[in-house]
Design goal:
With 491 residues, this protein is an alpha+beta fold. It contains 15 helices and 21 strands. Helix 6 runs antiparallel to helix 7 and helix 6 crosses helix 8. 29% of the residues are buried. The structure holds FE2/S2 (inorganic) cluster.
Amino acid sequence: MLDGMSQWLTISRAAHLLGISRIALQKQIRDGELQSFDGMVATDDLLRTRPELDLEESGSFEKTRAIREDAFARRLRERILPTQEALAQRLFAQGQELTELQRTLMRYHTLFESLQARLAATSPPSATELIRLLDDGLAEALAVPAPARDVAALDAMLSVMSAHVTVKPSGREFFVEGSETLLQAALRAGLAPNYGCGNGICGLCKARVVAGEARSVTPYDYRFSEAEKAQNHILMCSCTALSSALVLEVLEAGVPEDIPEQRIVARVRSVDRLSDEVMRLHLQMPRSNRLRFLAGQRVTLGLSAGKVSGSDLHGEYPVASCPCDDRNLLFHVGRTEGQAPSHVFSQCLFDGRIKAGDDISVWGPWGSFILQQGSPRPLVFIAIDLGFAPVSSLIEHAIALDAAESISLYWASARPGGQYLPGQCRAWAAALDEFDYLPLTIDELSPLLAANATLPLSDIYLAGAAGCVEPLAAMLLASGVPPGQLHVEAL
Ligand code: FES
């Protein structure tokens, strides 16, 4: 009989190893030269009959083991694992049980320490007294524990469901939910890690695992050098966190100069009219080539030559969406008249010559109207008409970072009711306790800002047409706002 340490191979695999046909091997089994069980042959038996076979050295042994482990893991995933809901409920129940056990253990510990202290006292208790103390203490320790606090059980469950990642050297943190990649989770949390293709090819999203474990969840083509492997490098776009806590060393962009100039051809997903004067252009980036930019930056949008009367049309526009969704870029384009390329680009949008499915080249990013991270001051955003586009990107980024003490938005328009996305602003105000939104006209803006004594204590982001923002910026500086706290984007 074969011992428990033997590994098992299928008859086909064993025949392949022996270099004989499957039929020939089956004959050996029938002749009693080899034993088989349930269509499998034991490696020990193979070595006994053919000692020249070195399974360990050939790697077949390990390969067989890996195949079996893989098959076992697949069976687990496909047949044994419960649904996500059932798993979550069981984890929650186990978290409660664990918390209760910890509390009971603490009681035993306290009892033990108090008995130890009594025995070490100058007048130790008598045996009778000791038994009474022990009985009382045990009764207390074994009393049905109060239900464990849900928060502790929930924390135990969440530590399994979402991993906590700390980034070095910045010290910033984010959570990875489900099986999303580290790159997706980092972008969602407002971080700006170095990356390129987002698809496992370029290697730009490399990070070093300092503590914890990460595992690849999508295939990648990038080849790590031996040194990178030895230093625990992984690709953030292909890996998720395996351990509940992970520490990564990541290259992050902090200033616009950290981001390279890119030129990508995107597809128009939709063109929507937001008002008589403003169109929203939604571009979708190729799956394997996203635009890397910082919230608040601009890009040049270009229409290929020949689209309109053989001309090469282009215009520079702020991205109105957040880098946390780098596949979808939104732009707010105002109606303009004139023959300059940017004016004709706008006219093409308004008269329907640019439509869903068209290709648009995206070139950039440009500009330094970005969020100053790490400041503890309240954030004040002042948007004048289309200045709302970069401000909207900054606000979404600030919300993702979840670091601002409070956010105020003043959106001034040349005419009453000119705010073309009031629902979005009201949604922010409804969702966030510390968010104030005030729509107003340009004429109302200056006196209101002049009367606000808290502005010098805030970080102010002001965006709009040059003719409007320049006098306002001068007024804010004159009223005591420190220059380092005033950030201006003249469109
Ligand atoms: S971003 Fe290119 S490999 Fe990850």
